[in-house]
Amino acid sequence: MKNLTKIAAGILSFLALGVLGVYSQATVTGHISAEVVEAITVGESSPMNFGRISASELSGAMVIPSNGKTKTGALSNINPAVFSISGSEDATFAVTLPEGPTTVTNMADGSTMKVTDWTSSSDEGSESYLLAGGVENVKVGATLQVGSTTENLRGTFTGSYKVTFAYN
Predict the structure, then answer these.
(1) Which of 25, 46, 111, 154 gives 82 a disulfide partner, CB atoms 3.0 to 4.6 angstroms apart?
(2) When comparing pLDDT for 58 and 77, which is higher?
(3) Does the predicted TM-score (pTM) go above 0.85?
(4) What is the DSSP string of 26-94?
(5) Contact indicator for 168, 113 with CB cutoff of 8 Å
(6) Count of Cβ atoms closer than 10 Å to residue 73 Cβ
(7) Max Cα–Cα distance, the chain, nearest Å
(8) Are the beta carbons of 66 and 129 closer than 8 angstroms?
(9) Does residue 129 sit in helix, strand or coil?
(10) In angstroms, how far is CA 65 from the centroid of its own chain?
């Protein structure tokens, strides 16, 4: 009889669980948020300029550091490119420079030189970028690989490159 009572109690307990609604799932309410911020805008304030170079029999390199300090070797002032960025106040952003070399071409004869080793810095000279007050200037420097006089004849060399500015 004891066994029969234990079996009956077990069956009743099992049935009671089904009736009382004990389940192995739960429902919860999740929340959603979004913030619309001012679009980031960029303008080139000053183009990169390697200046006037005196050609020689040897090839070499002209460096424009992004901190804006000029280097010797040019016959005129050189300067990094300056980009003016505006957007959401106190937002941080990233700068993506060209990964490889860019070619500049002589407008007269089609000869080329490479621009490599891209660098960037903020007005304060750091690589951290903050839109304090919603604005920031970024300077971009690089190295011009200059060929010999037989490789690069007299003339003006021009080209372009892409820099990407994006919110973090």
Answers:
(1) 46
(2) 77
(3) no
(4) ------------PPPEEEEEE--B---B---SS-EEEEE-TT----TTBSS--B-EEEEEE-STT-BEE
(5) no
(6) 16
(7) 114
(8) no
(9) coil
(10) 18
